Amino acid sequence: MTDIARPANGRPDAKRPSRGKNAGLTIDRVFTTEGVHPYDDVVWERRDVVQTNWKTGETVFEQKAVEFPDFWSVNASTIVTTKYFRGALGSPQREQGLRQLIDRVVHTYRRAGEENGYFATPADAEVFEHEITWMLLHQHFSFNSPVWFNVGTQSPQQVSACFILSVDDSMDSILNWYREEGFIFKGGSGAGLNLSRIRSSKELLSSGGTASGPVSFMRGADASAGTIKSGGATRRAAKMVVLDVDHPDIEEFIETKASEENKIRALRDAGFDMDLGGKDITSVQYQNANNSVRVNDEFMRAVEDGKPFGLRARSDGSVIETVDARELWGKIAQAAWACADPGIQYDDTINDWHTTPESGRITASNPCSEYMSLDNSSCNLASLNLLKFLTDDDQFDAEKFEQAVELIITAMDISICFADFPTEAIGQTTRDYRQLGIGYANLGALLMATGHGYDSDGGRAFAAAVTSLMTGTSYRRSAELAAIVGPYAGYAQNATAHKRVMRKHQAANDSLRTVGSLDTHVQQRATRAWEAVIKLGESNGYRNAQASVLAPTGTIGFMMDCDTTGIEPDFSLVKFKKLVGGGSMQIVNQTIPRALRRMGYATETVEAIVEFIAEHGHVIDAPGLKLEHYEVFDTAMGARAIKPMGHVRMMAAAQPFLSGAISKTVNLPETASVEDIAEVYLQGWKYGLKALAVYRDNCKVGQPLSDGGKKADAAKPDETAPAAEPTVVEKIVYRPTRNRLPKSRPSRTTSFSVGGAEGYMTSGSYPDDGLGEVFLKLGKQGSTLAGVMDAFSIAVSIGLQYGVPLETFVQKFTNLKFEPAGLTDDSDIRMAQSIMDYIFRRLALDYLSFDERAELGIYTATERARQVETGSYLPEEDVTEAESLKNDAGDDVDTSLLDEPEVAAARPAPSTARTTSELFESLTGTSVDAPLCLTCGTKMRPSGSCYVCEGCGSTSGCS
């Protein structure tokens, strides 16, 4: 990539570009061909992008005939069109296709690179332009959202997504904090800061009065954030508030959001609309920020030892109160259990990896906790799509990955040369230290495709090796750039500390224990990269104070058509996919058949497993799948959800190879205890993480499945009541009523045999159809088994009469596995995993419609035979929705999924599903604990420490 010799083994020798301005980089072609523009190598097509809010039916966006490559998904093109195209809709200035967008950005980068002496010749600048264009076009990487929003437009050229502010103990500084945050939110970015310099409410002012304390000033900042639509869009502002654990107001800070959550519950129960985005949620405070406690090693050791810990005055550092460390730790865990806040930041670990400590300590982070650097600084991000570097023979192309990283880091550093910043202080710090944040997405998909379990030694080793290679290559390029355009301005002051941190990264790489050939190869290249980092840094210094972070990659992850975001595992094994021309399909992740083939499964077995996953959403009891391979298909949600410590261990594997930290929330089940959360936070410290956040399912009231809005409407007071009388808001409780069967009703009796055990089932229905009762006969009268089955029958029958849908019982009781199990005497159900599995499959066949059964994956023998012969479960004269959609879509690449045998489980998505989250809920009968998108009304999904909408790319906070 540069004017250096590279031996056949790919290891660069010691000869690097010499110091001196205008020496310039020599750029080699890696992805492109000389004489062929990247745009000429792809097939382009025109699409209509129409976005509606499914709840209201309102069209929120429409642009006709936008141009995209044919291999870009509908989701990706929709998100880019709605989020990133500039110019007023309907005007000649409106961007009409991906080419215009990429050219607007890349041409700006090339021009700035040439003006600032980055390239040896104009030809090298052209190669740089083509290489970056090719990688963006083919979804190998993406810049962060502000680049797409702003670069090449008449707007300020803000390229950073992450900001850290500072506030001092003065009213001028506090009011300036409000102002600076407002401008950052307006620009579409987020900010974080540490409030620990503000004196506590237990200290005196110089006038003799008592100070208000930082928590009181958080109210004003929270209200300001709640009124500013970030980037002029519909999402709320993103912000992080940090307080040191030794601040005298720490307990008030810890309990702030938990107390407000109690208020939300009380208001909800009184009938107010307290859902996220609800009309009454603005009446509560502190909802626009993530809160984190900054703990140090002294406090953590006191927690372990059960010792007292001193809270210190802000004015002179004296201890003004002593608390029990373990009790305070319990309060942190209790609050996080109740409302997911506060998170934890580990101060000593953060500052031990700090490259510029002579310029100041790291006291805070951006809203998602991945960017950690000096106060009044910013970071621009870019993320690689890891799955793009997996070759057809399932090898990770480490060499091309290195070359891509070199190009991207070069582009990111160039952006600082022309970037604008919201404040002069932020601009000066960023130009002086040039913090970058390269990262990646699709790690979960890469691990699955290569046969690695996310929570496995092999998975962690591979992830660590890739992260080490990325950061080592980034700092090597940073040292090369330092020889050409000079090191960052603050380097001389911090040279000793910076080089010490580089050696720490190198030592971590040397201590990495590889497991297989894939990670061994990657780690070997990382070792050579770190050797070059140390050698070149010694003579050249470094261009950048920091190089890498792991961001959520929410919107840009969908822009790159990634299955997984950031460092996250796969969300679920079945995906919702929109089709060009309208319609949608439910498909099994395409990485699954690839993983199965890599693990040696025959084609027939792969097809059977994929079909099973399409029906059930998990791999438990999938035909032919070995138990030891189950872990490869573990996901963030579902029947085989990854355990909380599995997430922590993966973060710990990557953390030593990152300049910054990791945006990730560790999800715990609703049944998790306060002690479970305390243990996760404790292990995060022991594993050497820099920050950690948790979320316990359903711990927040503002969830999309609540019916607060309906209660609010029902609870409106009588407007005709006399004014003198107080208005009482009555809580209305709706109770189901039992619809009993008539004395005489139709019924059917079915005899059955499961695994040699025989029995009888009698089912009665209402005269207008619909199952109303079930009675099972097993065992001798008076036996324990007969009694249990009688009680079970009565419970199911009463549930049916109270309105519980039969589909719910079928979802819950099919696939239960216990003896007796095996062959049956029923031609429609040849195998049953238990008597319950058989009974409810038979009831589904007898009483549910075809569409209802199809969603549950239950078919008659005739329907299954027809599907094998014709590809459809329905008779030829009935055109299925899938075939209709396929015809509408024409030659679009998405429909090829229907013709591939290993993705034959593609089928029409349930009518209730509009995103993968909603599809997952429909398939498994479990709820995804995530808010609804305020733009299109669909269920969002977790992404790092926030949420992202799969339909429109909106996020709950992170750019």
Automatic annotation (TrEMBL):
Catalytic activity: a 2'-deoxyribonucleoside 5'-diphosphate + [thioredoxin]-disulfide + H2O = a ribonucleoside 5'-diphosphate + [thioredoxin]-dithiol
Keywords: Cobalamin, Cobalt, Disulfide bond, DNA synthesis, Nucleotide-binding, Oxidoreductase
Protein name: Vitamin B12-dependent ribonucleotide reductase
Single GO molecular function: ribonucleoside-diphosphate reductase activity, thioredoxin disulfide as acceptor
Pfam families associated with the record: Ribonuc_red_2_N (PF08471), Ribonuc_red_lgC (PF02867), TSCPD (PF12637)
Disordered: annotated segments: 1-24, 870-892
UniProt domain TSCPD: residue ranges: 742-846
Residues of the Ribonucleotide reductase class II vitamin B12-dependent N-terminal domain: 48-139
Stretches assigned to the Ribonucleotide reductase large subunit C-terminal domain: 160-695
Entry similarity comment: Belongs to the ribonucleoside diphosphate reductase class-2 family.
Gene3D superfamilies per the UniProt record, alphabetical: 3.20.70.20
EC number, UniProt record: 1.17.4.1
The protein's required cofactors: adenosylcob(III)alamin
Function: Catalyzes the reduction of ribonucleotides to deoxyribonucleotides. May function to provide a pool of deoxyribonucleotide precursors for DNA repair during oxygen limitation and/or for immediate growth after restoration of oxygen.
